């Protein structure tokens, strides 16, 4: 199958909670998905998770676009000040 390869050592670290932050995130996510499957169908859960992922991705892209735009705008303002000064 390909894409997702988990080493045995990484799995043991997750199960034995050697890094509580990573283990908490993984098991909290799995628990949330299992609880949502008790109330909704698998198709609904997958659709909502995909929608959340898509919304997060688009929001991140818009944030990065505005960040780049503001940096360019700051540069233009600095150049205009320099041109007016000379």
UniProtKB/TrEMBL annotation:
The source's superkingdom equals Eukaryota
**InterPro entries attached here?**
Reticulon (IPR003388), RTN1-4 (IPR046964)
* Record key words, sorted: Endoplasmic reticulum, Membrane, Transmembrane, Transmembrane helix
First-listed, main subcellular location of the protein, grouped into a coarse class: endoplasmic reticulum
Q: What is this protein called?
A: Reticulon-like protein
The UniProt record lists the keyword Cell membrane: no
Please spell out the taxonomic lineage of the organism that makes this protein. Answer: Eukaryota, Metazoa, Ecdysozoa, Arthropoda, Hexapoda
Query: An example Gene Ontology cellular component term from the record?
Result: endoplasmic reticulum membrane
Query: Which species does this protein come from?
Result: Diploptera punctata (Pacific beetle cockroach)
Membrane topology type: Multi-pass membrane protein
**Subcellular location(s) per record:** Endoplasmic reticulum membrane
Statement: the UniProt record of this protein carries the keyword Transit peptide: no
Reticulon domain segment(s): 11-86
Transmembrane region positions? 24-40, 46-63
PROSITE patterns with a match to the protein in the record: RETICULON
């Amino acid at each position: 199958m390909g894409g997702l390869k988990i080493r045995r050592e990484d799995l043991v670290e997750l199960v034995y909670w050697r890094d509580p932050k990573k283990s908490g995130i993984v098991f909290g996510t799995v628990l949330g998905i299992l609880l949502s499957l008790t109330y909704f169908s698998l198709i609904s859960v997958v659709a909502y998770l995909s929608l959340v992922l898509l919304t997060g991705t688009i929001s991140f892209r818009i944030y990065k676009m505005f960040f780049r735009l503001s940096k360019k705008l700051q540069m233009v303002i600095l150049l205009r000040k320099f041109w007016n000064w000379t």
